[in-house]
């Protein structure tokens, strides 16, 4: 199974703890402000629809460029290996 650089980055403790913190803040803001919640829900539905449409439109292009994406992913994974080796702080949550 080939590694996916995006998944690896999202699994880094510094990144995952930041994402969790942002998600908690977003959720608590929606819960505290009903008007903000309704605006956010409209925005979320729009983003989901646009994302699905974009993926449908990009599918043929992605299929044709798959070999190039694989090469870029491999290079990015090697670069991430180097960063993780040189910057140990990436392995710690934001609060540490």
Automatic annotation (TrEMBL):
Keyword annotations of the record: Lipid droplet
Gene Ontology cellular-component terms listed: lipid droplet
Pfam family membership, one: Perilipin
Subcellular location per the Swiss-Prot or TrEMBL entry: Lipid droplet
Main location: other
Entry's Gene Ontology BP terms: lipid metabolic process
Keyword Metal-binding in annotation: no
PANTHER family to which the protein is assigned, alphabetical: PERILIPIN-1
Family: Belongs to the perilipin family.
Protein name, entry field: PLIN1 protein
Species in which this protein is naturally found: Scytalopus superciliaris
Organism lineage string: Eukaryota, Metazoa, Chordata, Craniata, Vertebrata
